[in-house]
Design a protein that fits this description.
By secondary structure, this protein is of the alpha/beta class. The chain has twelve helices and ten strands. The chain has helices at 2-19, 37-53, 69-75, 90-97, 133-142, 157-169, 181-189, 200-208, 232-235, 256-271, 273-281, 294-315, and strands spanning 26-30, 57-61, 83-88, 109-125, 148-151, 174-177, 195-199, 212-217, 243-251, 285-286. The strands form two sheets. Strands 1, 2, 3, 4, 7, 8, 9 and 10 form an eight-stranded mixed β-sheet that branches. Helix 2 (37-53) links the parallel strand 1 (26-30) and strand 2. Helix 2 (37-53) packs across helix 10, helix 2 runs antiparallel to helix 11 (273-281) and helix 4 (90-97) runs parallel beside helix 12. The longest helix has 22 residues, at 294-315. The termini are far apart. The structure holds aspartic acid (ASP).
């Protein structure tokens, strides 16, 4: 009898703790370097989601090439609603790119929802000797033995874009991997590497200030915040299109009430005028609210995993 009463009491207490969730700061794992495109989205969203949650969201960078260590950390985190992770399209491509990934995006996590769609830009160091895409292409083909491409490792958006680009122009160049495109951008600005395809969230300011050269955007339509930059399709690379998306994940087994609160906060943040403005300025679109849900993320992840698997297999790229 006593045991039943105690059990009921414990349940009521944990229930009320959950009803008050969150009672302390939430950690958001970012699987790439600070100051890069994923980190930027994480920080904008962290501040905005903290308001409806009434708690601070602490961004914790766990950078690794390809963003493969962040999901492993999330998988091993306590499923109590106090650790979440932001990740991008890599969650759909890593299972095909790595022979033995240490997590399965389709089964090892709980889903919160999609965040945004981000186009990418093909950029080069400021003194790269090509004024437009046509000259760029001719230069890369003629100098393929010495030109270098920076990316954030196998599994990164910049890796995916570079892989598709090199296959489209049928020219391979040396790739230089980093633990995020923030450090890659530093080296591009310093002239240590030649070019990169990176998300507008990391390149817009550098493009606008003229510190890097831009040859095209990877979206079907031009990006409103970069109206003078042609699409790569317009520039001559017919049909070339790469779109990156971000989403939030939680450890498997996170209490339903906590996930519901996180989803509500995500939805609030996507409606926040500050978020809309920051995203617009950086050339990214907040996702429509119906996609900022666990079910929509799960469906999107599955669809993207199925879409990329045969393309990656065909490209024959593997990390071990
Ligand atoms: N999203 C990565 C970063 O934040 C870059 C990439 O995936 O290319 O650095």
């Amino acid at each position: 009898m006593l045991r039943i009463i105690l059990g009921t009491l414990a349940l009521a207490l944990s229930g009320s703790a959950l009803a008050q969730y969150p009672t302390k700061p939430i950690t958001m794992i970012v699987p790439y370097a600070a100051g890069g495109p994923t980190d930027t989205v994480a920080r904008v969203m962290g501040i905005a989601m903290g308001k409806p949650l009434g708690q601070t969201i602490i961004v914790e960078n766990r950078p690794s090439a390809g963003g493969i260590l962040g999901p492993e950390a999330l998988k091993n985190a306590k499923p109590d609603g106090y650790t979440i992770m932001i990740h991008h399209i890599g969650m759909a491509t890593i299972p095909s790119l790595y022979r033995q990934p240490r997590f399965n995006p389709l089964t090892d996590f709980d889903y919160v929802g999609l965040i945004n769609d981000v186009p990418m830009t093909l950029i080069a160091r400021g003194n790269f000797p090509a004024k437009d895409f046509k000259e760029f292409l001719a230069y890369v083909k003629a100098n393929k033995a010495k030109v270098t491409y920076a990316n954030a490792g196998i599994g990164a958006a910049s890796h995916l874009c570079g892989m598709l680009f090199m296959s489209a122009i049928q020219t391979e160049v040396l790739t230089v991997p980093y633990k995020g495109t923030a450090p890659a951008m530093n080296d591009l600005l310093g002239g240590q590497v030649d070019f990169m395809c990176d998300q507008t969230t990391n390149t817009t300011n550098q493009i606008k200030s003229g510190k890097v050269k831009v040859y095209g955007v990877t979206s079907k339509k031009r990006v409103p915040s970069l109206p003078d930059v042609p699409t790569l399709d317009e520039a001559g690379l017919k049909g070339f299109e790469v779109g990156i998306w971000h989403a939030f994940y939680a450890p498997k087994g996170t209490p339903r009430q906590a996930v519901d609160r996180l989803v509500a906060a995500l939805q609030e943040a996507l409606k926040d005028p500050e978020v809309k403005k920051r995203f617009n300025d950086l050339g990214t679109d907040p996702i429509s609210l119906d996609k900022a849900t666990p079910a929509a993320l799960q469906a999107h992840l599955k669809a993207e995993t199925d879409k990329w698997a045969p393309l990656i297999k065909k490209a024959g790229v593997y990390a071990d």
